[in-house]
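debug: dumping io for the single-chain case to check the tokenizer round-trip. Nothing else runs in this session.
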Amino acid sequence: MTYHGAVKVGGPPDVRELAHLIITKVAVGPYDNNAYLLRCRDTDEQLLIDAAAEAPVLLETVGEQLATVVTTHRHQDHWGALAEVVAATGARTAAGRIDAAEIGVPTALALDDGDTLAVGNCRLTVRHLVGHTPGAIVLVYDDPQGHPHVFTGDCLFPGGVGNTWGDAAAFDSLFRDVNEKLFDALPDEAWVYPGHGGDTTLGAERPHLSEWRERGW
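debug: decoded output
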């Protein structure tokens, strides 16, 4: 079946099968958070992005083994089930260096802009985007047999950047980082997997950047 990315809490996950990586998207919790399970086809090693809520759902999705859990940023709705998932799987925790101290489970691996994170034989590039939180990170998988796949947490959604709560300086920072590190660096085909709601592509959002800049959110 064709991947669509339209998942809902209590419903089934959606699965995207790439040449080297399998992406499973599931919605959990009262804030309709997305969690993404990445599995390397060659090694079966798995990495979970945002153990947000509903640990039993996440553990059922994960199955028997999990190597790493990455938390995209410090907000609790993105790590509410982290302690339970780590306790059940023994997975290593990872997060952006600046946000790590505010996450309720100790971070074993602090990530910086430009770092590379392995999922078996697949490689994710870490991009640090400042504005939604000081230490939010985005993960980019550049499929060698396709287009990039970008896991944006709460930094980029269909229709705009993440919430900066009316803070003009925070918006300016996030808008700049999203432009420079995502839109300027990646092609229109790059697929965006946000922390809540449906997916999009950079190409679908690119024509609206000037609108976002003008409205300031």
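debug: round-trip ok. Residues 23 and 38 are 5 Å apart (CA to CA).
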